[in-house]
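Work Package 3 (structural annotation) set out to generate three-dimensional models for the target panel prioritized at the project kickoff. During this period the team completed the workflow that converts sequence records into discrete structure tokens, so that structures can be stored uniformly alongside our sequence database. As a representative example, we reproduce one entry of 201 residues exactly as it appears in the project archive.
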Amino acid sequence: MVPEHPDAPAGETTALALKILVAGGFGVGKTTLVGAVSEIRPLRTEEMLSEAGRTLDDTDGVDHKVTTTVAMDFGRITIRSGLSLYLFGTPGQDRFWFLWDELAQGALGAVVLADTRRLEGCFPAVDYFEHRKIPFVVAVNCFSGARRHDARDVCRALDLDPGTPVVLCDARERASGKEVLIQLVEYAGRMHTARLLDSVG
């Protein structure tokens, strides 16, 4: 958490910028979510899928996908006056996971996007954030034609820690994505407050 204007005169409200990661499996909608909610033109590092990469990337269920994120996506959204979120979309394939540690530095929390047709694709992201004690919410991206699952069923299938929020969303819709981010900020705030109280108790 860093102030956007650290040299603001005394008495003025300093704007706060929070770093949020958007993670999940290959082709789950991370780039779409960042682009849908960002109030600035998002930075994208997409490259065309190559024939050489097809032996490395599991494209089952996303046969129509022709590009992939190779570094990160970046966007920004203002939640309310004085509070902005900087969004960093992570690459989905395991060959780019070495970038995650760098991207996770200083993050308040994360959104793990899930596709119930390929739920196993979000296991690595769930494990990553649980082991590093980074607060996260699971956002089930409701794709057209996919069977709808109850949030409790998804929670059980992913064996999430008690209290980890699971929300349904449409990554293409700005309002839906913004609601996911608000839930994450609220949850991460509760988690960080509880840890602070534990440390002084």
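Residues 5-12 have pLDDT under 50 and may be disordered.
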